[in-house]
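Example S7 (structure tokens).
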């Protein structure tokens, strides 16, 4: 799971990106990539899921197509024809209503998965079996799919394919800078971490609009494909367009928003599977939904570090030190504390809290989705599996979040046992 800041050629990630951006992608290692790329020196991109996130990712990927010239849009897939037509027409791609057909397309080297949570694992497993590199949106899976998350991890690791989960906060240099400070012993043993996510709004991105209140299943809307192995139900326009409100398809704060902050924090402090997880929460503001709008988790790692992961969708105040929509972490160690203020990392030595100004270390570079995708594409070109957010870390984060949901649902503490998974205590 450790991520090296340098690739196997000894270049830093940033200097490699600079090199590729100037068009020098035809290095010796490029010859290892798939045939369609060999033809035009670009990776063919297939987008699965043409809703809000698929659209946003396509806009970001267009920079790589137009400026870096490392990729080319090839194909799009959605089970709802109007969204498929809209996005595929903008980028002049082939259209599929079944993702398996897109995976069979020889011109597609890389798939971008931006479907609802319960599809991510199956689509990733089938994609890597078809030899495609995968950028899969967070969360890895639906919160009831721990076994599938495990299978997905195994499938990616057994394949030659590159994988990155959609936690773009990992493109912010602050995490790598703080990780280095932690590894250098700046704060000693991390003992206590606070972090969280606060926003206002009942069901997430863009309010999840209902595109067409009269939509019905048929040739242009495949309801069975939307459900896949989720519980069988009659078509419901709200479930289809506003799936984030329903427990069959979404996990709310935990799996929807916490991957964005838990991923960089566990990377920074260098912890893996949790020992104990407790989750509490509820619908404290928005009654219409099925899943909590307010959710808090307490996590223990290795009997050494406690982590409090707090958040609500009912109030967006994040404290005074903002960074994106995440509440900035406070990482307390035996020898001092690391946190963030504006564009600085702030270090407070443990013994000088009242007498000294803290040390301030400028953050080199903020979060950037284009950079995050560029870094992934560069890994695909080099076949370097050490992406900014690789499968092992995604699995550890997802397991922790699933344990939080199970704890809330069953009113029990959960532990993790290697070989068995989450277990109620
Ligand atoms: N990284 C981020 O910041 C971020 C932001 C937003 C969403 N996301 C993630 O992206 C995913 C999609 O979210 P969204 O907001 O775009 O939802 P959305 O409803 O706007 O889009 C999902 C699309 O997938 C389509 N779809 C459903 N089942 C499909 C299937 N079997 N095959 C092909 N297409 C299918 C739907 O018709 C819809 O157009 C979610 O998992 C979400 O967590 C991540």
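Recovered sequence:
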């Amino acid at each position: 799971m450790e991520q090296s800041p340098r690739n196997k050629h000894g270049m830093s990630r940033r200097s490699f990106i600079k090199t590729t951006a100037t068009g020098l992608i035809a290095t010796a290692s490029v010859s290892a990539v798939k045939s369609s790329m060999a033809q035009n020196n670009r990776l063919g991109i297939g987008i699965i899921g043409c809703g809000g996130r698929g659209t946003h990712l396509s806009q970001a990927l267009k920079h790589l197509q137009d400026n870096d010239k490392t990729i080319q849009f090839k194909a799009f897939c959605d089970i709802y024809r109007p969204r498929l037509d809209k996005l595929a027409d903008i980028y002049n791609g082939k259209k599929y209503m079944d993702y398996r057909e897109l995976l069979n397309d020889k011109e597609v080297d890389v798939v971008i998965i931006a479907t609802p949570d319960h599809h991510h694992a199956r689509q990733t497993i089938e994609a890597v079996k078809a030899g495609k590199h995968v950028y899969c949106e967070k969360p890895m899976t639906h919160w009831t799919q721990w076994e599938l998350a495990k299978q997905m991890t195994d499938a990616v690791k057994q394949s030659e394919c590159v994988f990155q989960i959609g936690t773009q906060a990992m493109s912010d240099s602050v995490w790598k800078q703080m990780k280095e400070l932690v590894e250098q012993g700046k704060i000693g043993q991390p003992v206590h971490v606070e972090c969280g996510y606060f926003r206002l709004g009942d069901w997430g991105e863009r309010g999840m609009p209902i595109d067409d209140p009269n939509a019905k299943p048929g040739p242009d809307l495949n309801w069975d494909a939307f459900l896949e192995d989720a519980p069988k139900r009659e078509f419901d326009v709200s479930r289809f367009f506003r799936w984030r409100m329903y427990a069959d398809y979404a996990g709310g704060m935990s799996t929807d928003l916490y991957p964005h902050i838990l991923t960089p924090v566990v990377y920074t402090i260098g912890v893996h599977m949790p020992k104990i997880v407790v989750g509490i929460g509820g619908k404290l503001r928005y009654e219409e939904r099925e899943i909590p709008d307010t959710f808090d988790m307490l996590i223990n790692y290795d009997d050494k570090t406690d982590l409090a992961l707090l958040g609500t969708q009912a109030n967006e105040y994040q404290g005074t030190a903002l960074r994106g929509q995440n509440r900035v972490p406070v990482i307390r160690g035996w020898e001092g504390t690391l946190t963030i203020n504006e564009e600085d990392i702030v270090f407070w030595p443990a013994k000088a809290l009242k007498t000294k100004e803290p040390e301030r270390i400028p953050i080199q570079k903020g979060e950037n989705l284009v950079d995050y995708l560029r870094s992934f594409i560069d890994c695909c070109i080099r076949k370097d599996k050490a992406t900014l957010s690789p499968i092992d870390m995604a699995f550890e984060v997802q397991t922790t979040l699933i344990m939080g949901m199970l704890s809330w649902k069953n009113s029990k503490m959960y532990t993790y046992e290697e070989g068995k998974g989450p277990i109620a205590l």
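Notes on this example. Confidence is low (pLDDT under 50) at residues 1-35.
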